[in-house]
Amino acid sequence: MNLTLKIWRQKGPKDKGSMVDYKVSEISEHMSFLEMMDVLNEQLINQGEEPVAFDHDCREGICGSCSMFINGEAHGPDRGVTTCQLHMRMFKDGDTITIEPFRAKAFPVIKDLVVDRSSFDRVQHAGGYISVNTSGNTQDANAIPISKHAADEAMDAATCIGCGACVASCKNASAMLFVGAKVSQYALLPQGRIEAVDRVKNMVAQMDLEGFGNCTNTGACEVECPKGISLENIARMNREYLTANIKD
Amino acid sequence: MSGFFKSSIGRKYAMALSAFFLMIFLLQHFAINILSVFSADAFNEASHFMGTFWIVQYIFQPILIFGVVYHFVMGFILEAKNRSARVKKYAKNNGGANSSWMSRNMIYSGLAILAFLVLHFIDFWIPEINTKYIQGDMSGLLADGEGYRYYEELTHKFVSPLRVGAYVIAFVFLSLHLLHGFSSAFQSAGISSMRKKKLQTFGKAYAIVLPLGFIIIALYHHFNH
């Protein structure tokens, strides 16, 4: 198929940037979106132009690196997939595809489609862990009884890959689905309860500090999340936060 | 709890709490207004009770005013903060693919409701405060002393088709606001209405039936008087 691509080009963090049109031809419908971008970049290199910078790593939908806003949606029009798992069969011959970086004050653009998502790392560092002495005498996790329901919900929350699609999709650039998932995956398990009060307070404080917007429950994040993280995690984080503030 | 209401989640709780209060108030307001369709006397009695009972006047009314002002002011503050969280807008943003129009435009439905409240206060609340607390007439009687004035005042206001039209439009916006606001308030308060189908269905019914009821009351008095 032949396509017109409207791509955000920005030389560096301080560059103003603009949308630039490109033509690509003979794109197979079996290609992934990133493979289509590879074809474009080879074309640009052969023409002596600067290739389009974009984040990618595993290309298996699990690392959360690829972060494009395609035709007005994070990771494009397909559901439950990252950009690397989005296939060109989702588009038609002759389509014009708009490709932009994830936009949020807390995700500044580094170059072209690459954004700095280290704000997520700082939120995670603020409490998204459990303090376990791993010197060899740690209790076997399987010896701690956990209900199937709690284990399943914790696992569902833990599937968040921190790609940032929730922030990119939210009209308020809110990170509450990400933080809600990270709070929930520990809050649901006995190992995580010990530090639950400090965890939720510190992670929410860091989230606010990073400049993310406030959740208004549009549900866009849940729809666009490639891992299907549920809004239930935001409700749970809100409960955890209230309880933590009452206890403290 | 220090700093709770300065945090993003604390403000969500505050917005939800003020929304719960306003939704309960709306139900009570409707319950009294609908009486006017069935019985002028019942409406007069209920209005006089609400207008003179000290708990309503000196406790609930100030709380209500605080709730309304807080909900609007905090709504605008959060909107401004949320807009600043994305400095550069998308060239193409397909919001309709992942969220409802109502959820994305709460600020505009809220502004329409605010404009209506200004009209409503000019129509009813300010004259009521003037009569009772400035002129000192707590009797609730008509100028000639023949019965209560409330029903007469109500029907008089709905003579103008322009005013009735404004009320109908405002209640359509109220419905749109509530269609997202009801379940959103529960979600913000940590009660996931998204998974509780019964609550969601009740919320939709509330968001449609209540404003529709207010519209019916306005149209009933317009065409019957």
TrEMBL record, chain A:
<dbReference type="Pfam" id="PF13085">
    <property type="entry name" value="Fer2_3"/>
</dbReference>
<dbReference type="InterPro" id="IPR036010">
    <property type="entry name" value="2Fe-2S_ferredoxin-like_sf"/>
</dbReference>
<dbReference type="InterPro" id="IPR050573">
    <property type="entry name" value="SDH/FRD_Iron-Sulfur"/>
</dbReference>
<dbReference type="Pfam" id="PF13183">
    <property type="entry name" value="Fer4_8"/>
</dbReference>
<protein>
    <submittedName>
        <fullName>Succinate dehydrogenase/fumarate reductase iron-sulfur subunit</fullName>
    </submittedName>
</protein>
<dbReference type="InterPro" id="IPR004489">
    <property type="entry name" value="Succ_DH/fum_Rdtase_Fe-S"/>
</dbReference>
<keyword id="KW-0004">4Fe-4S</keyword>
<keyword id="KW-0001">2Fe-2S</keyword>
<dbReference type="InterPro" id="IPR017896">
    <property type="entry name" value="4Fe4S_Fe-S-bd"/>
</dbReference>
<keyword id="KW-0411">Iron-sulfur</keyword>
<dbReference type="InterPro" id="IPR025192">
    <property type="entry name" value="Succ_DH/fum_Rdtase_N"/>
</dbReference>
<dbReference type="InterPro" id="IPR012675">
    <property type="entry name" value="Beta-grasp_dom_sf"/>
</dbReference>
<comment type="similarity">
    <text>Belongs to the succinate dehydrogenase/fumarate reductase iron-sulfur protein family.</text>
</comment>
<dbReference type="InterPro" id="IPR006058">
    <property type="entry name" value="2Fe2S_fd_BS"/>
</dbReference>
<keyword id="KW-0408">Iron</keyword>
<feature type="domain" description="4Fe-4S ferredoxin-type">
    <location>
        <begin position="151"/>
        <end position="181"/>
    </location>
</feature>
<keyword id="KW-0479">Metal-binding</keyword>
<dbReference type="InterPro" id="IPR009051">
    <property type="entry name" value="Helical_ferredxn"/>
</dbReference>
<keyword id="KW-0560">Oxidoreductase</keyword>
UniProtKB/TrEMBL annotation, chain B:
<feature type="transmembrane region" description="Helical">
    <location>
        <begin position="55"/>
        <end position="78"/>
    </location>
</feature>
<protein>
    <submittedName>
        <fullName>Succinate dehydrogenase cytochrome b subunit</fullName>
    </submittedName>
</protein>
<feature type="transmembrane region" description="Helical">
    <location>
        <begin position="106"/>
        <end position="126"/>
    </location>
</feature>
<keyword id="KW-1133">Transmembrane helix</keyword>
<keyword id="KW-0812">Transmembrane</keyword>
<feature type="transmembrane region" description="Helical">
    <location>
        <begin position="203"/>
        <end position="223"/>
    </location>
</feature>
<dbReference type="InterPro" id="IPR011138">
    <property type="entry name" value="Cytochrome_b-558"/>
</dbReference>
<feature type="transmembrane region" description="Helical">
    <location>
        <begin position="164"/>
        <end position="182"/>
    </location>
</feature>
<dbReference type="InterPro" id="IPR034804">
    <property type="entry name" value="SQR/QFR_C/D"/>
</dbReference>
<keyword id="KW-0472">Membrane</keyword>
